[in-house]
């Protein structure tokens, strides 16, 4: 995943004109049989061609209560696509994101039998699968469907100028905070590093947890760590690991993870965090057990849903991670991008290819993108006019607009085996088995091995 310019640029683009080729309902033109291939109507007495039913498998990760709005949007897109292709029936296969990415999809790609459509990460994953001929190239298809210039940024799904995947939305990461807890303790959102640490201490002294956390899945604590090391070592450092121009076990990286370990030892995260599933950290914030939570912008949808947030609707705010004293690089940079979406198998029959095109047209249009913003609080990946935005999401957008630059999540830039080593390492650090330096030495060993294999 390449570094983007600024969130401000992305959202300036949002004000662009509506998608060309849209129908009156705002959906993109649905692909049909090209005119040159249109068959004449059957002559009198001829029997209509028999429609043979066929199934297309769609692997998604929209499981769990917090993703119900996203799942409904997907289901509606699937229904629309099915109506455009005779005989088509989609088989939805819901899998946990981590399991899909690190286990199932890897194994399926190696065996040569991935689903027809599947949840895909941009960056390293896309580059790896494209290099091995596993992904359908979409460049000409986007032109055919009138979508060539409709995405804000496709760099994370592009390899050598060709497109191999489509982001479903964008994201940005930062701190959510419980306004009730802050008001009770007379705390204001911190703007400097010293203020952040002072807030954490005050919250801890008041008998509450400063930072909500659920570390059973390692990617959750690594969200905080990713921005932390980008403050200490600079937002550009992560792109150097796979190139061999930067080291995980450098002094700046050790300082970043040393700070994370310090927070663990001070009790700034909840006890038993290694046993908590991802959704639990949101509950910690909602119930007031924790005052702050570092998470992605997608989490904002939970805080506007009375069923999930209760009387905390409208009582959650947002601020970016403050600058670190003496940190390197742009200290306003935010972790943001368009790194998660859908990829398509390179091995498709003609009718399956028609189904893929119908799905793209049904899923990637102004109507569905706007639904994602309003119903699920997901930042759009396409150029739309986001009217009716939730106030919390507006705070997130404003925070991004105030940033001078962005950087992609680490897992879009490093090899899967390095990601696994880092995931194991952060959990070992939390449990106290590793200190920061030993953890990073282990990760660097995995990085060196992955880099040698890539040559």
From TrEMBL:
Compositionally biased tracts (Low complexity): 27-45
Origin superkingdom: Bacteria
Keywords per UniProt: Signal, Transport
Region (Disordered): 24-48
Transmembrane segments: none
PANTHER family associated with the record: ARABINOSE-BINDING PROTEIN-RELATED, OSMOPROTECTIVE COMPOUNDS-BINDING PROTEIN GGTB
The protein's name in its UniProt record: Extracellular solute-binding protein
């Amino acid at each position: 995943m390449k570094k983007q310019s600024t969130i401000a640029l992305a959202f300036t683009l949002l004000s662009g004109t509506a998608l060309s080729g849209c129908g009156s309902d705002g959906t993109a033109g649905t692909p049909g049989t090209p005119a040159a291939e249109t068959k004449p109507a059957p002559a009198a007495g001829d029997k209509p061609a028999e429609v043979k039913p066929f199934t297309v498998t769609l692997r998604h990760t929209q499981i769990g209560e917090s993703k119900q709005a996203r799942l409904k949007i997907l289901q509606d897109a699937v229904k629309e696509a099915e109506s455009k292709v005779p005989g088509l029936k989609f088989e939805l296969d819901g899998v946990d994101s981590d399991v899909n990415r690190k286990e199932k999809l890897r194994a399926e790609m190696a065996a040569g039998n991935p689903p027809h459509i599947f949840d895909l990460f941009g960056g390293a994953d896309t580059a790896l699968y494209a290099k091995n001929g596993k992904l359908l190239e979409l460049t000409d298809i986007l032109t055919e469907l009138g979508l060539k210039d409709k995405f804000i940024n496709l760099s994370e799904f592009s390899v050598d100028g060709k497109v191999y995947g489509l982001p479903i939305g964008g994201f940005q990461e930062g701190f959510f905070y419980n306004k009730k807890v802050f008001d009770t303790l007379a705390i204001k959102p911190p703007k400097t590093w010293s203020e952040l640490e002072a807030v954490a201490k005050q919250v801890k002294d008041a008998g509450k947890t400063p930072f909500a956390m659920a570390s059973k899945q390692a990617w959750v604590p690594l969200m905080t760590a990713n921005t932390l090391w980008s403050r200490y070592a600079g937002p550009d450092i992560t792109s150097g690991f796979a190139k061999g121009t930067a080291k995980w076990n450098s002094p700046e990286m050790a300082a970043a993870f040393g700070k994370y370990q310090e927070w663990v030892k001070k009790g700034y995260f909840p006890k038993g965090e290694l046993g908590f599933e991802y959704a639990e950290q949101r509950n910690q914030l909602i119930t007031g057990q924790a005052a702050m939570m570092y998470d992605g912008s997608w989490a904002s949808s939970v805080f506007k849903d009375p069923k999930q947030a209760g009387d905390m609707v409208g009582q959650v705010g947002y601020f970016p991670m403050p600058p670190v004293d003496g940190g390197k690089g742009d200290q306003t940079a935010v972790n943001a991008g368009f790194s998660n979406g859908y990829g398509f198998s390179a091995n498709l029959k003609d009718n399956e290819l028609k189904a893929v095109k119908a799905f793209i047209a049904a899923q990637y249009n102004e109507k569905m993108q706007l639904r994602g913003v309003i119903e699920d609080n997901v930042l759009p990946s396409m150029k739309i006019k986001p009217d009716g935005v939730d106030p919390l999401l507006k705070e997130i957008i404003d925070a991004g607009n105030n940033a001078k630059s962005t950087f992609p999540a680490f897992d879009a830039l490093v090899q899967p085996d390095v990601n696994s080593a880092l995931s194991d390492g952060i959990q070992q650090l939390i449990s106290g088995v590793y200190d920061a330096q030993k953890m990073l030495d282990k990760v660097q060993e995995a990085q060196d091995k992955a880099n040698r294999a890539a040559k």
